[in-house]
TrEMBL record:
InterPro entries: 4Fe-4S_dom, Fe_hydrogenase, Fe_hydrogenase_lsu_C. This is 4Fe-4S domain-containing protein. It comes from the Bacteria. Gene3D superfamilies: 3.40.50.1780, Electron transport complex subunit B, putative Fe-S cluster, Fe-only Hydrogenase (Larger Subunit), Chain L, domain 3. GO terms for molecular function: 4 iron, 4 sulfur cluster binding; metal ion binding. It comes from Candidatus Desulfacyla euxinica.
Amino acid sequence: LYTQFGEDVLPNDILLGLKRLGFLYVHDQAYTSEISSFATELYIRENREKKDAPFPLISPLCPVVIKLIAYRFPSLLKHILPLATPREIVTREAKKRVAEKYGRKPEEIKLLHITPCQAIADSVMEGASRKGPRQDKAVGINAIYEPLHRSIQEIDDDKVLHHSGGIGLGWGMSGGEVAALDRNCLAVSGLHETIQYLEKIEMGLLQDLDYVEFRVCGVGCLGGPFAVTDKYRAKHTLQKLISIFGVERRIKYKYVIDLYNKGWFFSDKEPRSQEIKPPQLSSSEISRGIERQNRVEEIFRLLSRKECGACGAPDCRTFAEDVVDGDTTLENCVFLKKKER
C-alpha cells in the first residue's frame, strides 16, 4: 500500500488518510514484519544445530507457495517456519487490543485487511470458517485507492502512526524479507523458479542455507493483481522509502526476546499439513491433466528455450502451456518462424 501513491506520499500520510476515511484504528503491519524478522533469527539460532532440524527453513508468507508445498511437495511441510506471519499476528492481537482501548467487545470489532494479493484475499475468506481470531474481510488496494487518495490530499493531522523502518517496509519486495536477516539466506521469485528450488530442497540440496524466501510474483507482493501502480514504479518508490527510513531495526530487542520466549510469535493454527488438504480429483480429471502435461512437454521440446520473451510469455514453458490452453499459437515463436524459413 505504501508504494502506490508515489515517493512524495509517506507511509504516515497513508495511515492518516485511512483514519480520515473513518477507521477506528489502523495498524502499520510493516512494524510487525520488522519484529518478526528478529523472531525468525532467534528461531534459526535456537534450532540450527539441532539434530534432524529441517533446513533450509521456508518462509510461510506467500499463501500460494504454502499451498504448492502442500499439494506437490508435502515432504517439505516440516521446512515451513512455524512462526506466525505478520498478518496472523496482527489478526490475533488487533481485536483484543482495540477492544480493550475503546471499551468494546472483541466480536464487535471488524478487522479489514488491505492487500495487493488475490491469494491473501482468498486465504482471509477461507479463514472465516475457522475458530479463533480472524480477519473479517480483505479488500484489494484497487478498491480503496480512489477514496484513500482523496483522503490523503485532505489530511490536516500530524499524529504519528507509522513506526517501521526500511526493514519492515522491504517485505513487500522480493528479497526484502531475507534482507532483514543476518543469516545465510536466499530469495526466489517467480512460479517456475519456486518449483525448481523446492525440487532442489526436496532432493536434499541447499542444506547449507538457513532460510529461503519464496514469492510467486516476480517482484514480490508489489506485483499483486490488486495493485494500482506499475510494479516497477512501485519497486522504485519502495527503494526510495527504504533509503529514507534506513535499514536499522526500530525494535526493542529485549522486549522481542521476552515475547519470543513466551511463545508469542508461534502460530496457534493447526499444523499446516492438516490445514491444507489436496483436492479430490476424479479419474477423468487426472487423465485430462496428464494429457495436458504431456502435450505441454511435446511443445516445449520444439522451442528454442532461449527465454527471449518476444512471444509475450515470461518463458518458453509458459508459452507452451499457453499454446496448449489455446491462448496463443506456435506461430508467435520467432525462432520457430526462423526455422521455417
